[in-house]
Amino acid sequence: MPAKTLLLAILIVILSTQAIAQGRTAAAATTKQDERAIRDLETKWELAWNRHDVTGMVSTYAPDSDAVNLAGEWFKGRPAFEKSLEELHSGKTKASVWKTGEVHIKFLTPKIAIVHVYVESRGDKNPDGSPMAPRHVILTRVDVRRGGTWLILASQATNIVPRATANLYRPGLGNEGQ
């Protein structure tokens, strides 16, 4: 192989390796920034919940979002979810306190992440006005980055209960509505 060809091949390998390394560094930096933005989104939700600021809460959701609450109600679109939150925060949860625990983020793409959030909620009231026991909840969310801003596109809330006390749904066993 002539010396010029060998030198050109070596130069291409070196430049390619540097470009790949720089690309990985940029991707890692973006991921760290995006991870911080998603964690900040959860903090924004928590602060709004604790102020009982429904407008602040729904501002963390995309306009075309879906949310499934602890009762299994499915809200399609931010306005429907907002109405539900207004009802909750004028009654059952108007004195509740939300504490975000662990937040786990898994990026599916640079603009889509699955987020699991552990939460403790205290201060809710039963329908008769008596205090509810503190609840432990896990949220499964799909967050998306739109126009440089992270928003919640979908959210599913699940009460964490001991497995032995869970009323598991099993088709055909008569517990379809549970």
Characterization of this structure:
This protein is an alpha+beta fold. It has a single domain (3-165), classed as Nuclear Transport Factor 2, Chain: A (Roll), CATH 3.10.450. Helices cover 37% and strands 33% of the residues. It contains 3 helices and 6 strands. It has helices at 3-51, 54-58, 78-89; strands spanning 61-68, 74-76, 97-109, 112-122, 135-146, 149-159. A 6-stranded mixed beta sheet has the order 2-1-6-5-4-3. Strand 1 and strand 2 form a beta hairpin. The N and C termini lie far apart (75 Å). The model is unreliable at 19-23 (pLDDT under 50).
* Total of domains: 1
Specify the CATH class: Alpha Beta
User: What's the N-to-C terminus distance?
Assistant: 75 Å
Would you list the SSEs in sequence order as H and E?
HHEEHEEEE
Q: What percentage of residues falls in helices of 4 or more residues?
A: 25-40%
Mean pLDDT: 85
CATH topology: Nuclear Transport Factor 2, Chain: A
Number of helices: 3
Strand order of the largest sheet: 2-1-6-5-4-3
Task: Name the poorly predicted regions.
Answer: 19-23
- What CATH architecture do you see? Roll
By DSSP, the count of extended strands is 6
Share in β-strands: 25-35%
What is the rounded Rg?
Answer: 23 Å
Shape summary: globular
Classification by helices and strands: alpha+beta
Main sheet characteristics? 6 strands, mixed
